[in-house]
Q: What sequence folds into this?
């Protein structure tokens, strides 16, 4: 049986590695809720299955599915994918799954953040979220790792780590009163450091325009490797995203990471702006308490929402006008990886993308201590 630990990862010598470091595998969840996924969730299930198959080329993939969907998910998913029955309220493994931390001896543990569906009853995206809040604990048990239950309401998509003591976050999300209104910014910083091992937090301002997570950093920017950040950046100054991305760029250029380095920033094109069509909105079954899907609403589309697998970059294809440029740019940023595009529109319609539906399990290996 795995244990719930009372101290913090930092005090036990554990820290969050970078996503670009070697993985033992990837976890995902199977989508099914009809008030978020259109047309019986079938197009989303096909999109999730394509993501799982793309990642399975690089590393083992596990997908949690409800009892009701288990057999169907098994039939739709690539034979290399392991399917495990896990209850959830939706399918955002980045946010409800554990953040894995490692130590110098190569041991793994899990951080289980508290989850309130991106804002609880004050702007959250659905009710209830009790099963989502249990997912991290269940994944940790399947992985056989001990777990820290962090005293912070947060989601995995709200942080990116360089594995060397630096964390990227946004104020829009971490300081949103719908997460931890009782905590000050210094108190939130202290908890982030204690539970990820970071010593430097780089605060960006807002996230991507109309991002219903309240501006998760993983849709805006991420570490390609220590010292290098990818940032979504629109082509037009008239796009409101221009102001947001320019502000992020300024903050990144002003920052030093935990090793005292200046950051190199790689701009990624922004798709669109893309909007939800009337047919797409009509396919979602509205239910009280869930966020309504409206025709014409701007979608929070971003190529920064890619996933780094062992030797691969799995990136959403979002806009025929910009996909090729985004892929070419990612190939230049990651010459050591194969860049694979997977259709991302159906995932985007649900409010996120490939990074939001995946969670990496770091490989077991001895590492130089962060401390
Ligand atoms: O982007 C994410 N990390 C999750 C998006 C959740 C949207 C729920 N409808």
A:
């Amino acid at each position: 049986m795995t244990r719930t630990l009372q101290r913090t990862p930092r005090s036990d010598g554990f820290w969050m590695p970078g996503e670009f470091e070697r993985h033992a595998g990837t976890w995902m969840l199977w989508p099914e809720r009809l008030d978020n996924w259109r047309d019986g969730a079938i197009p989303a299930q096909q999109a999730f299955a394509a993501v799982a198959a793309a990642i399975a080329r690089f590393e083992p993939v596990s997908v949690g599915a409800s009892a009701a969907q288990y057999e169907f998910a098994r039939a739709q998913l690539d034979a290399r994918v392991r399917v495990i029955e896990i209850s959830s309220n939706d399918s955002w493994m980045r946010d409800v799954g554990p953040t894995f931390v490692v130590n110098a001896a190569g041991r793994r543990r899990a951080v289980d953040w508290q989850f309130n569906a991106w804002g609880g009853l004050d702007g959250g995206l659905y009710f209830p979220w009790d099963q989502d809040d249990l997912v991290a604990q269940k994944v940790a048990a399947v992985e056989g790792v001990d777990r820290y239950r962090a005293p912070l309401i947060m989601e995995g998509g709200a942080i990116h780590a360089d594995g060397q003591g630096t964390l990227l976050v946004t104020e829009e999300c971490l300081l949103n009163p719908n997460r931890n209104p009782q905590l000050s910014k210094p108190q939130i910083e202290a908890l982030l450091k204690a539970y990820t091992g970071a010593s430097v937090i780089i605060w960006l301002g807002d996230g991507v325009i109309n991002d219903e997570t309240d501006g998760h950093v993983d849709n805006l920017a991420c570490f390609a490797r220590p010292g290098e950040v990818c940032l979504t950046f629109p082509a037009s100054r008239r796009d409101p995203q221009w102001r947001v991305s320019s502000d992020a760029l300024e903050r990144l250029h002003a920052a030093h990471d935990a090793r005292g380095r200046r950051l190199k920033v790689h701009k990624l094109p922004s798709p669109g702006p893309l909007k939800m069509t009337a047919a797409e909105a009509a396919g979602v079954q509205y239910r009280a308490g869930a966020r309504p899907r409206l025709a014409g609403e701007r979608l929070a589309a971003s190529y920064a929402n890619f996933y780094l697998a062992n030797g691969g970059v799995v990136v959403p294809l979002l806009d025929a006008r910009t996909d090729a440029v985004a892929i070419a740019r990612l190939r230049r940023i990651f010459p050591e990886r194969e860049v694979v595009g997977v259709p991302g529109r159906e995932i985007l319609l649900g409010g996120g993308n490939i990074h939001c539906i995946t969670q990496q399990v770091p490989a077991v290996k001895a590492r130089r201590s962060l401390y």
About this structure: The CA atoms of residues 236 and 242 lie 7 Å apart. Residues 42-56 form the longest helix (15 residues).
